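The methods section describes the discrete structure representation at length, but only in general terms. What matters is that the chain and its backbone geometry are given together, residue for residue. For illustration, here is how one protein appears when written out as sequence plus structure tokens:
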Amino acid sequence: MNFAAQFFANFVNDGLETRRSFNDSEEYDPFWQRWETSVYSTSQTFLNSKSFYVFFKEVSSAHQACIYLIQSRYSRLSKQYGMEIFLKKELLHYTGSVKERGALFLLSSLKQVRPAYPLIHTTYCAQFYFHIKHVGHHDGEDDSAVYLAGLGTVGLEIYEQVPKLDAVIVPASGNYGLLTGTAAAIKHLNPRISVIGVEPEDFPLLLQSLKTDSPIKDLYCNPNKKLYRDLMDHSLGTHCFQLAKKTVDKVISVREADALVAMLRFQEYERSTVDTEGAMGLAAILAGQLPELKGKRVAVVVSSANMELDLVLQCVERALVLDDRVSRFTVQLDDWPGDMAKLLDLLAREDCKYKLQVTSTSACECSMSSCHGELVFNHS
């Protein structure tokens, strides 16, 4: 039996009541209401429906078939933010990304691979200097039930590994299947656990789609392409959107600055280098957008760690400035022996370590006996 096909066939025709359209007032918007007051009361039949059970059965089979188990570990950041934080480090996969879960289960579910041995044929043609042209088309695999079931194993593992869980924070940028698959598994096991999605403020695709009650295909935004280069290539699928409406309690957006500082926290406290997507969950916590989770047990999914080394360096340097750890200032001194030494001695007494010093006499317009200095320093 194809459980994936049965799930979506039943899901579309389960006779659910349609949600109200978006109103300018957040008071009347079902998305902004709590799960206990709106979503749970109207979706109880869905959470117990046959289609939802079939999807969870697919998640269970994916977990037993080919998924590499990753533990959810207690984080040292817990005391700093006043909650018990458990990190699900999906960056430990061989590919450095949680997408490996969905891809492995999708490949293992294929009945026939067409054409036979395409890589071998392509390699032989290339050896004889034939021109190879890629003509394959994207078939929306990242919105298929099988792919979502593979990603849903994250929620299954979190539930098994973290007892008495109160909330799960999942990145929603680019890989929306991770959020919806995880939320579907969590809500099947315990509907009282809150599932929160986090996406960048510069590209709030899911947030805007939920407000308009329809998946937005083209969102006219201009995110930082260096940090969010995968966002522009992904769209919100219909299946992901429908699951998000039924299972995700809250979606918030975080600033780029908060994501960069979160990346710095991972390097300092967890000895892990993550990308901006992987840092989304922690960014929402350190930005203070989830005060209701104080004193709660929270699982944070760290989805990926795929970023070029030079970009990581740029992010760290920028995060140090945003975190008030590095400062830059310009000073004008008399061009006399020992004056620069006096300035550096003053900084040393304040426990500052200077990183860069640029001194120029020609840049100063006041006097030939003066010099212009620019310093960059670390301070505690």
